[in-house]
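Students often ask why we bother encoding 3D structure as a string. The short answer is that it lets us treat folding as translation between two languages. Here is a chain of 166 residues written in the first language.
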Amino acid sequence: MRDGYERWHNYAVYHNQDNGEKATKVLNEVIFDLLQEPVERLAELLHTMAGQYTELDMLVLQTIKDKSTINPKKLKSMNALKFTPEQMRNVKLSDGTKEYLVAYKAAEEATNIVYEQVEKLWGGVDQAQEMIKPLFDAYYSLRSEILNLMMKEIDEKLGVLKCTEI
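And here it is in the second language, the structure alphabet:
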């Protein structure tokens, strides 16, 4: 997965009119959704070739394209990957992966709290967004790095023949 990240990000930038911030957000959502898949499915996608790329690459690229062409307000409500509740019950996340997900969510919650405080204190949404832009930039960068590090760890685990948890 680590090897594909740069390619995926470049593809996301292309499909988001060279808007790196939006591209990173789309890619983070795609990766987060991907992590909801059972580890066996991820390993299968990673080890099955589709031309010069893996099936995992093809799935990520198609999902990036799909998510980049929809209304951004619907982005969070869409599931990039379809899975059954039973498949989700069988997913086992390692303690390390869980900690990365906690950090990812904590960054989001902290940013939301600060944004709400700035909006409450200084009023209008436009003014609050302008004041908070450096925080949002840092937040998107932090989320991207958290996911990148988590993907490196998962990639290492998927390389093991008998992977039972990611």
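Translate back mentally: The CA atoms of residues 12 and 64 lie 6 Å apart. Keep this in mind for the problem set.
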